[in-house]
Amino acid sequence: MDKVAVLGAGNMGSAIIDGLIKSAKYAPGQIIATRRRKDIVNPWLEDGVELLYDNITAAKEARYIILALQPKNIPEVLNQLVGHLREDHIIISIATGISLKYMRDFLGDEAKVFRAMPNTASAVQEGITCLCAEENDQDQQLYLVRELFESIGEVVVIDETLMDSATIIGACGVAYSLKFMRAMMQGAIQIGFDSKTAAKLVAHMVKGSAEILIENDSHPEAEIDRVTTPMGCTITGLNEMEHGGFSSALIRGVLASYNVIEK
Asked: What residues contact 95, with CB distance under 8 A and at least 6 apart?
């Protein structure tokens, strides 16, 4: 199988590597990682992932090149790759705000470029990745990229105009969900549970709630109706949260995050 080079093995890059290894579709020896810092030790190094400090060497050894970099570092790395790409190379950027046209302007019209927005749940193969490609890209190339990311979770192909929105919902959304879970844990502790039990209860409750929506292909309101009874404790709690602006605060947070990208 073709090798994968993850240029920039930070938090997101490491999550992708972890997910690829756990999928068993990619052996550690088929994965190359690069980064600048030499003082960080990742578990996947012990598994046999090759770690380099030279992006050009890593790119030459792989077919898939994932740019897991901060947007400000993308121009430097694209400049490094110019003149070193083969016809079979597939370049995938997960950097927010870096368009397909921007990459092609650096790498040339023949370069096969894609954008992906995964999230850190990719580390446990429960990620959701949004992909986009230019309209004239061959279906076979998109299929290969999709297959790569399907090994670490679910994949949705979207129009490039929605990629910033995908960042907010798919990537930032992990933090939003964890913030909700942390608040639920605090509430659980206040009504009697120890912190370890509270964490387990909340984590499995959230996981189960998500699975209900996925398996039933249903709307949250329909499932909420199933667990609310007249004058019951569930509807009382929900109404109290709404009085405090729960839904409004979440929506405003989503829009605030999106507006930062748009600027």
From this structure: 67, 69, 70, 71, 74
DSSP letters of 71-83? GGGHHHHHHHHTT
How many Cα atoms sit within 13 Å of 15 on the Cβ side? 21
Task: Name the DSSP letter for residue 171.
Answer: I
Whole-structure pTM value? 0.91
Q: Determine the longest span between alpha carbons in the chain, in angstroms.
A: 69
Q: Is the dihedral of CA 86, 88, 94, 98 positive or negative?
A: positive
Q: Which helix (H) or strand (E) holds 209?
A: helix 195-216
**Residue pointed to by tokens 């990745």:** 129
Burial 148-167 (b: 16+ CB within 10 A, else e): bbbbbbebeeeebeebbebb
Q: Which residue is it, tokens 């120890």?
A: 194
Tell me, what's the pLDDT at 29? 93
Task: Concatenate the DSSP letters of all residues of 158-179 into one string.
Answer: --GGGHHHHIIIIIIHHHHHHH
The three-state secondary structure class of 70 is: coil
Give the pairing of strands 31-34 and 127-132.
unpaired
- Contact (Cβ atoms closer than 8 angstroms) between residue 19 and residue 25: no
Q: What pairs with residue 131 in β-bridges?
A: 116, 157
Digit-coded pLDDT (tens) for 40-78: 777 888 889 999 999 999 999 999 999 999 999 999 999
pLDDT band for 135, please (50, 70, 90 cuts).
confident
Strand partners, 33: 6, 51
> How many CA atoms within 13 Å lie on the side-chain side of 259?
6
